[in-house]
Each structure stands twice: as C-alpha cells, then as structure tokens.
# Entry
Amino acid sequence: MDYKDIIKEKLAELNLSELENVLDDSDIAGTLSNVSAESIISSILAGEPLFNTEAVIESVKDLFLYEMKSALVLGVEIVTISIVIGMLKSLSSSFGEKAVSNLGTMVCTCLIIGLCLGNFTTTFNLCKDAVNTMTYTMQILIPILIPLLIAIGGTVSGSVLSPVITGATAAVNTMLSNLILPAVFISTIFFMVNSMTEKDYVNKLAVFIRGAATFACGISVTFFAGITAVQSFVTESADGVLADTARYSISNFVPIIGGFASDSVDMMLLCVNIIKNGIGVLGVIVIIVLLALPLIKMLAIAVVYKITAIITEPLGNKQVSECLNQMGNSVITMAVILFLTSMMFLVFIAIIIGIGA
# Structure
C-alpha cells in the first residue's frame, strides 16, 4: 500500500469536523475556506504553499480599514461633545455663569463616558470570547494530537504532556477570565471615574491594577510554557531510546521477516507522524486566525482612542483627553494579553509537532 493511501485511510478515522468548523467560523473573508488537514498534508508533501499569502494580507488590510471606519464614528461623536464642552467653558468665562457651565460640562462628560463604556465593554467581551474560543480549540486539538504522538512511539511524552498541557490551558483560561481581564476592566472604570473630577483620586490605583494584570499574565504564560518545554525535552529523550530499542528488537530477533517488519513499522510511523504534523499545522492556523480577528479590531479601536485623545486635549478638557488615552492603553493591554495567550498555545502545539519530527 502506498504511503498516501495509508495517510488518507488514517485521516478518515479521525474526527476533525469540530476543529475545521472553528476555522470556518473565524475565517477572514473566506481566504482559508479550502484549508483542511488533508489539504495541508498534500501541500507539505508536494512542497506547495498552504494558502494564498497575498489574499490573506489583502483581507487583513481591508478588515483593519473597515474596523478603523467603524471606530471613527465613536471618535467623531466624542470630538463633537468635546467641542460643546469647550464652548460651555468659553461661555462661562464670558458671562460668568460658572454653575450652569459646570453642570453642562458634567453632563457632556458623562455622555462621553457612557459612549466609551459601551464601546469598551464590547471590546472586553471580544477579547474574553477570543480567549475562550482558543481554549476550546486546544481542548479539541490535544485529544487528537496526543494519541497520534503516542502512536509514533512517544509514549512517555504523551502520558506526561497530556495532563500538563490540559491543566495549563484550563488554568490560564480561568486566570484570564476571572482575574486578569476583569482587573483590566476595573482599572479602566477607575480611569473613567477619575475623568469626572479635576484631581487624580484613583489614577495611580488604576495604573497599578492594570500593570499587575499584565505582569500576572506574562508570568503565567512564561511559567506554563517553560514547564511544558522542559518536560518535552526530558520525555523526548526517553521516547527516542524506546523507539530505537523496538526497531532493533524487531529487526534482529524476529527471524527472516524481521527486516521487512521493521521497514513496515518505520513506514507506518512516518505516515502517522505526517498526519500529526499536518493536524498540528492546522491547529496553528486556527489559533492564528482566532488571534488575528480580535487583535485587528482592538488595535483599530486603540488607534482611534489615541487620536481622539490628541484632538480633544486642546479643546479644553484635559481630564477627558487623559481618560481616552488611558482607555487606548487598556485596549492595547488586552491585545497584548490575548497575543501572549495565543503564543503560549502555539508553543504547546509546536512542542507536540517537534517530538518525533
């Protein structure tokens, strides 16, 4: 039997529909609609590119411009209200009606905060959903990759890495959903509250909470990725010894047909390894796509916040300008947290692909 037939037969035995459905649901403008485990393996064997790079870059550019246009609507609304605030302050200086001006300024500031809060809540939920979807993808992927890893002789690696990666994925998701991302959200609320007063009452507290959340995310990702990498180095050596011993035993202690049996085993292991790597590459593509869509949206929103902060500052309301600037920083912080999380998942997949390659 040809090795291509063996690969096709083994692929048919695997249920990859859930993983491919995640890719279809998260695809950018359908540029990866033809990407599947079978197409990836065929491209790898033929030495062809996995997808049209130019089409992907064009889709990413179009998506960023679209998100920028959508976010600019919020920016225009904020600038318009800021102009009204500037006019109220100017009228207060001219006619001496300071109480009326302060009341109008407060109402306009609350309106800006309401607009920003609605937008930031949507961005927060987008980031949280992306993390949850990545975690769900890993929960689908690990039960597929680990048995394939064991099938090619990675018994020790599979038995050790499976609980380590599964536990790390669940732990990071719990920390992000229940601690780190909510901390960033709370710090942003503090910035909004601070913008309603002339003094910085909770500004330093908000900066501290956001910095602590970012630090906790970095430490968690580094710790779990480091532990997994060290475990893989140790177990890979043990698996290499076991695999070599098995091949030697079949070749030398099985009379007459031992050499043929050893060659057949090598061919079967090679096919299974190709399948493992192909599915691993599919997992990498899914994680990158899940990262790209929310990351582009968050970067577009952060850019608009920053530009709006620059425009509103000379209009006379420095507190609102500082609040918008800090909100832009908070959105960038969430983007960094999402990026670090995806990098950790990619390291996990790369470790499994690397074993037995």
